[in-house]
């Protein structure tokens, strides 16, 4: 998105660029000079919008939460048939992780953040996002009739399946099936996680 015009860049432009860099290269990739170069801007443009890198990190983590958690939960909704909502959520999560390991795909930010999970800005964001997602999954499984404890266990299973799927797509994308076989794979995972029996 190289614009070369400082005045045309917004804080949102910097934050989007930082999120892309984070997904591609982890926390270390969120650095002012490389981002400025990618955007065709100067460091002065960055400091027009942010006091420092930490302020950009906070904005970037907030954008990730809005995009990959708030928006997803909002799309699924809080009312209606729990079976259909859970199936839609699982399919959305698994199909949002493409079989080519694309850097901007859902799940890549989580994976990139794992190496920096103890960072004082990353740790609370990861915890908050994970708790919100698990809470939403637990509510859906509870609405399907599971006890709170079993719903929490099933939600944890679904979430760890998503993270494992994302890791595989990112690290060894050639191991995932492609094309129609990918769709079948997602359908099988979804239906397995929809089963409520032991």
Automatic annotation (TrEMBL):
Pfam family, one: TetR_N
Known DNA-binding region: 31-50
Top-level lineage group: Bacteria
PROSITE patterns linked to this entry: HTH_TETR_2
GO molecular-function terms, A-Z: DNA binding
Species classification: Bacteria, Bacillati, Actinomycetota, Actinomycetes, Propionibacteriales
Alphabetized UniProt keyword annotations: DNA-binding, Transcription, Transcription regulation
UniProt signal peptide: none
Name the UniProt record assigns to this protein: TetR/AcrR family transcriptional regulator
InterPro entries with a match to the protein in the record: Homeodomain-like_sf (IPR009057), HTH_TetR (IPR001647)
Every HTH tetR-type domain range: 8-68
Nucleotide-binding found in the keyword field: no
